[in-house]
Amino acid sequence: AVLAHALTAGASIVMQPLAGDFAAAWAAIARGRPTWLSTSAGFLEVLASTIETQPALPCPPSLRFVQVTSAPIAAETCRALEERLGVPILPRYSSTEAGGIAMTWPPPARRQPGSVGQPVQEVRIVAADGADVQPGREGEIWVRGPRVMSGYLDDPEATAAVLRPDGWYRTGDLGYLDEDRFLFLTGRLNELINRGGEKIVPAEVDAVLQAHPAIVEAATFAAPDARLGEDLVAAVVLREGVSIPLWQLRAWLLERLSPVKTPRRFWVLDSLPRTPTGKVQRRVLAATFLAERDRPQAPGARG
């Protein structure tokens, strides 16, 4: 889509790899003097934390707006970056199978903090029983329109699992529509954590954690639990030079989340594992956490 937009506008396009030194990658972007930056939510999360720790990092004076897609992004992260970059952050929602689904338009168009904009195709929010839910209620996002695929190549089973005969595509994403038809993403069905029968969206917990003044980044994931089946673990990256007793962090969360959504275990890391596009790798976090937890301790060591 980015390539098509650039060609339509007669613009040049610069593809910047992000692996390795993120600050160097951002400095290279700034030297290119872009007017439009299209990137992932993960990239912006890393950018927000990098700018905070390196305030001298350059910002492209030519930039007019930033378009972001691929995952939910906290409204606070967008607000902080808008202040630092001096341009609007415009979340959108798209997928390979359905193309553009919802968009936030540049000012003076109306925006809703935390939203990915308003649908540009037909969108339904559907409960587990297949019924449409009321505005403000969470469910799976279904989309139908001219951009939706006709199916996966040579894979009728995979196609049947997500594409209904009447053309509705099941995205596997969770979200809700408000009264004004602004769409909000809340997570992925396959990332739901089943804690003793309660279904928890980790992105919701992440957003609350990242609002804590001591935390730069956070990611919640599931760990096996003998009593609950799955329990919550929160991996957090603290601000440089900051420390906080973890019991205080849990107490702070209990003021903002229900007890069932509040992690009992916290894991402090220097950074979170991410994909090349900046998306947090929850499965890598879970596997590494379990390996560390189950590693035999040396004689006399204390856990």
Explain what you see.
By secondary structure, the protein is of the alpha+beta class. It is built from 8 helices and 14 strands. The chain has helices at residues 2-9, 22-31, 41-53, 75-85, 156-162, 202-210, 246-254, 282-294, and strands spanning 36-40, 65-69, 89-95, 99-103, 118-119, 122-126, 139-144, 169-177, 183-188, 193-195, 198-200, 215-225, 229-238, 265-268. The strands form 4 sheets. Strands 1-2-3-4-5 form a 5-stranded mixed β-sheet. Strands 6-7-8-9 form a 4-stranded antiparallel β-sheet. Strands 12-13-14 form a 3-stranded mixed β-sheet, with helices on both faces. Helix 7 (246-254) links the parallel strand 13 (229-238) and strand 14. Helix 3 (41-53) crosses helix 4. The radius of gyration is 21 Å and the shape is globular. Residues 298-303 have low confidence and may be disordered.
Mean pLDDT: 87
Proportion in helices? 25-40%
Computed Rg = 21 Å
Distance between the termini: 50 Å
* Total beta strand runs: 14
H and E string: HHEHEHEEEEEHEEEEHEEHEH
Q: Count of DSSP helices?
A: 8
- Residue stretches low in confidence (pLDDT < 50, at least 5 long) are 298-303
Mass-distribution shape: globular
Largest sheet composition: 5 strands, mixed
Strand order of the largest sheet: 1-2-3-4-5
What structural category characterises the helix and strand content? alpha+beta
Strand content: 25-35%
